[in-house]
Amino acid sequence: MTLVTMVSRTRVSEAAEFLRRPKVVVTFFIVLALLLGAATIARTPIGNSPDCWSHVYRIAAIYNGDIVARSVDAVSPFHQISSESYGGAVDWDIIHLSMEYPGWTWMSVVDPGSITVFDEQKADVVFNNAAVYTPVSYLPYVFALALCRATPFLNAPVTIYYAMQILGLVTFVCLLGLGLAL
User: Fold this and answer.
1) How far apart are CA 107 and CA 79, in angstroms?
2) Residue 106 confidence (pLDDT)
3) Are the C-beta atoms of 60 and 77 separated by less than 8 Å?
């Protein structure tokens, strides 16, 4: 047996031994998922994730009590027929954030000229493509929004946006770890 063969077999057996330790593997994947997720959040500009504003609007509407989407008059470039628009009440600061950072998902940003139902705090906006999802899947994000609203120094739209993404990542990684551990 040559030295190269012995080293190769040793490395293979060490790798196999590593993979036999479930806690180590689960921890490895949790750390990897957190690092990659955090890097993705840090590198992705605001408004540049798939259907970003529809989902953010949905989260804000759930927070404001619109658990089930309802008929609204507002439209967006993507949802142009007001009689077929579904959405809910979204805070003005979130609406302004979406207009300031439309990103490549600009099609789902509400047309401000179409908003007919509003008050000083919020307005009815459309999010048809996110209206069909269960509110349960948005709970971590709604919790992040509620936490930021309750904390004065976190109550800025950009901070809320990133807090929702971070808590969503942490929730996903916890569920991933639980699934891998079982």
Assistant:
1) 8
2) 85
3) no
- Token reading at 56: 């953010």
61 closest CA partner among 155, 145, 172: 145
Q: Any residues with CB less than 8 A from the CB of 138 and at least 6 apart, and which?
A: 55, 58, 59, 62
d(CA 127, CA 56): 9
pLDDT at 85: 94
For tokens 């479930």, what's the residue?
22
**pLDDT attached to residue 17:** 66
* Strand order from edge to edge, sheet including 70-71: 70-71, 86-91, 122-126
Of 55, 165, 45, 43, whose CA–CA distance to 103 is shortest? 45
Q: How far are the Cα atoms of 26, 30, 156, 169 from residue 35, in angstroms, in the given order?
A: 14, 9, 25, 10
Do the beta carbons of residue 59 and residue 53 sit within 8 Å?
no
DSSP, res 88? E
Q: What is residue 18's predicted lDDT score, i.e. its pLDDT?
A: 59
| Segments of the chain with pLDDT less than 50 | 3, 6-7
